[in-house]
Design a protein that fits this description.
By secondary structure, this protein is of the alpha+beta class. The chain has one domain. It contains six helices and four strands; from the N terminus they run H-H-H-H-E-E-E-H-E-H. The chain has a four-stranded antiparallel beta sheet with strand order 3-2-1-4. Strand 1 and strand 2 form a beta hairpin. Helix 2 packs across helix 4. The two termini are 23 Å apart.
Length: 157
């Protein structure tokens, strides 16, 4: 999509959707930088602390959570820098937590030939938000209580 097409699409969004897009863009840039400075655990813990400073709000419906994930993914595709599934998933997880909506940051791995590949995604109420449902078949999910291996952030695409 051209820059003018992107602007036209943005202007067609309602005020709440525009706020999600702008918040997603800011959070994606911060996350891209934060992961490189603080590493995965340091940045995730920072996001966890920041997401706890919210005022009590009504929990988002699953449909609204899917819409937020979709807008964040679309925003990531249009940024001037490339973001990974880890960065996008962290941002979706963070934005949902800021809106009092419980979400699970999930990680999975698979072996492709002689390479290990890892992937990150977000689930809400057991539904995958930022990937298709087949992600659980394509990547073996780690237990939600496990933190990913330290090397995961290096190999996540």
């Amino acid at each position: 999509m051209s820059k003018s097409g992107t602007l036209r699409a943005f202007l067609k969004l309602n005020g709440n959707e525009r706020a999600v897009v702008l918040g997603s863009a800011a959070a994606l840039l911060c996350t891209w930088t934060g992961l490189r400075i603080f590493g995965f655990l340091g940045w995730k813990n920072t996001m966890l602390r920041l997401s706890q400073k919210t005022s009590p709000a009504a929990r988002m419906s699953l449909d609204k959570a899917k819409a937020l994930a979709s807008l964040t993914t679309a925003t990531a595709r249009r940024l001037f820098l490339s973001t990974s599934c880890l960065e996008q998933s962290l941002v979706i997880w963070f934005l949902l937590r800021r809106r009092s909506t419980p979400a699970v940051l999930r990680f999975g791995g698979r072996k492709q030939g002689d390479r290990f590949e890892a992937h990150a995604w977000v689930e809400c109420e057991g539904v995958v938000l930022n990937d298709d449902g087949a992600v659980r078949q394509n990547f073996v999910p780690f237990s939600p209580l496990e933190e990913p291996p330290v090397a995961l952030e290096k190999y996540t695409h």
